[in-house]
Amino acid sequence: xxxxSDGPILDRLIHEPGRLAIMTVLSTVESAxxxxxxxxxxxTKGNLSSHLTRLAEAELVTIEKRFVxxxxxxxxxxxxxxxLRIAQHWDRLDSLRNFSTQSPSE
Amino acid sequence: xxxxSDGPILDRLIHEPGRLAIMTVLSTVESAxxxxxxxxxxxTKGNLSSHLTRLAEAELVTIEKRFVxxxxxxxxxxxxxxxLRIAQHWDRLDSLRNFSTQSPSE
DNA sequence: CGCACCAAGTTTGTACCGCAAACCTGTTTG
DNA sequence: CAAACAGGTTTGCGGTACAAACTTGGTGCG
Lengths: 106, 106
Prior knowledge:
The structure is a homodimer. By secondary structure, chain A is α+β, with helices and mostly antiparallel strands.
């Protein structure tokens, strides 16, 4: 048996709270560094790091590692795809919320 | 500065796509039966069943099992708590989305 | 009757994954 | 030199969402 019609599929990759926060924050800026993202999202270093890795693997963000003042500095930005996908995701959440979908019976 | 995620908590119990759909649909009606929920959310029987069980264990919904026309009929409704929690969840999503921009450190 | 099939759910097996904690690597400080 | 620190990364494990198998009762039908 299969899903009849996977209606408003919410992509778990983006929907995940930590990544939803990351993506949403990134959507408001051109780029942000690791420490800024950590503060903005409240994630721990470890979790931020692994979420960023996943997002980069999915090509939703790009990661650039530099040294600034002899310290490592990781700069993150949404890709064009990423920008699209986070916008779409919020759209889907909107339509789920408004749930104006077809009502079969009763 | 307060992290925008001062209450960083998006409750995963509710945030989970399947359950978010269930709760949201339920918030628009007084009650709904299993089959209606299945159609409305696009979930399979199995997943709908287990999500409902979890929600009931958390006392976010009540489940009543009856027989209608000699067929089992499972009726589901939000508890008062459930109604509150789903509303709160959407509020949190809103504030995440509106993420009052702070000056990027860079 | 006996048997097949359906509808409405429930249970189960497992593969995935988020989280915290341990670890790494280079820099400044005493 | 050692020790503390900043900025990340890797690892171990506990929880869980999903699909598939199973259950339970009803209904045709020959």
